[in-house]
Amino acid sequence: MSSSLSVYLLDVSATRALVGSRDEQLLEVIRTNFGDDLARDDDYFGDAIADGAPTAYEALRAVVNGGPFSDDKDHAFQYGYAYKRLCSLTGSFLDNSCFTPHRGDWLSVVDEGLRALGITAVSVEDFGYSDLPAPLPYTYMPGSGEWTPERITQALEQFEATKRAVDESGQAPPLEPAVVEAVMQCLGWMRHAQARPGFGVIGFRS
């Protein structure tokens, strides 16, 4: 079974602040302009909704209002996907071609490549965890993580330090071409974010 990674460039603090914002105008805009998308998701998760899970819009409304949330842990995934929807609508989608689809421990393999280049401030495996803003309930799927502007700045500084060391020694870490390509894609995400003050990266694994 394969997984996918969806990665967005956005103002991390502003995006997290949407949770519990009670922004009725935002909800109305989404319901009016993206009703087909909501209906498509409801069709996909029809069995879970029949068992009591919230619809896509009900979950979105709960996220924006800060609750209430279902007491059934099996339904928490809908709130994770609702937050992902907010990120997709307020942020810019970043090229994920090195990560969608992927299988097995690919994210940890890319993390090893990042570490080989001295980059420890960020991790793509973080996108597989459940780092959703409070008070959203825990959900295994979708996984979610974020790279803040501070962590991105540190990661790029680490990479530049490694580049200087390689230039002096003439020896680069031996990495598989696919890993190099994925690491370069990660660096591209970070450079996009660094070019926009306050912006970072939020990613979802599903």
What does the model show?
The structure is a single chain. This protein is α+β, with helices and mostly antiparallel strands and 206 residues long. The chain has helices at 12-16, 24-33, 35-44, 46-50, 56-65, 77-90, 106-116, 149-169, 177-194; strands at 5-11, 92-93, 143-147, 199-205. It has one domain (5-205). Helix 7 packs across helix 9 (177-194). The chain is elongated and about 60 Å long. It starts with a strand and ends with a strand. Residues 1-205 form the DUF7691 domain.
Shape: elongated
Described by strand count, sense and barrel closure, the largest sheet is: 4 strands, antiparallel
| Average pLDDT number | 95
* Cα distance spanning the termini: 11 Å
Looking across the biggest beta sheet, what order are the strands in? 2-1-4-3
**Total helical elements:** 9
Give helix % range.
40-55%
* N-to-C order of helices and strands: EHHHHHHEHEHHE
Q: In what range is the share of β-strand residues?
A: 5-15%
As for the number of domains, it is: 1
How many distinct beta strands? Answer: 4
What does the radius of gyration come to? 18 Å
- Low-confidence stretches are none
Class from secondary-structure proportions: alpha+beta
Domain DUF7691: 1-205
InterPro entries: DUF7691
Protein name: DUF7691 domain-containing protein
Organism: Streptomyces griseicoloratus
